[in-house]
Amino acid sequence: EHPCKRFVLYYHDILFDGEDVANATSATIANETKLGNFKFGKLVVFDDPMTRDNHLRSPVVARAQGFYFYDMKSDYNSWFAYTLVFNSTEHKGTLNIMGADIMAAQTRDLSVVGGTGDFFMARGIATIETDTFQGAKYFRLKMDIKLYECY
């Protein structure tokens, strides 16, 4: 089956390090536990810019607002829940996305579980892959969003 709507966006996350207030887009709100060596229990809340290309300074077409937490003691794995908030001349509304980010996999699928406005009751898949990773400070994800239910 072919998607009724498809687009690619880039998610840019700059983790607050205690100093960079002006540029940070995410912050740790619960520190990792001592259970394993893979940040188990760490919780991060974010308000990240989404762009059409992989340049951080490109025009923002949406904001990803939500959280992720590390949920595996034996490897790096996280669970995401967020809303893409669109407020432009091209799109208005939201897409709600959630699911496991199995970081060892090259691509990972998160569920698009609903939306509002231009994306009213949308359902689909957001295939993500890590585009760049600069330690704990910055990472960028490429998101290929395919909607299979569009109204």
Chain-wise SSE layout:
Blueprint: E1 5-14, E2 26-30, E3 43-51, E4 62-70, E5 77-87, E6 92-102, E7 108-117, E8 123-134, E9 138-149
Antiparallel strand pairs: 1-3, 1-9, 2-3, 3-4, 4-5, 5-6, 6-7, 7-8, 8-9
Strand content: over 45%
How would you classify the helix and strand content by structural class?
A: mainly beta
Shape label = globular
Stretches with pLDDT under 50, minimum 5 residues: none
Terminal Cα span: 16 Å
Distinct helical segment count: 0
Task: Give the mean pLDDT.
Answer: 95
How much helicity do the residues have? under 10%
Reading the helices and strands in chain order gives EEEEEEEEE
Strand elements, count: 9
**Gyration radius over CA:** 15 Å
User: What does the main sheet amount to?
Assistant: 8 strands, antiparallel, barrel
Tell me the strand order in the biggest sheet. Answer: 1-3-4-5-6-7-8-9
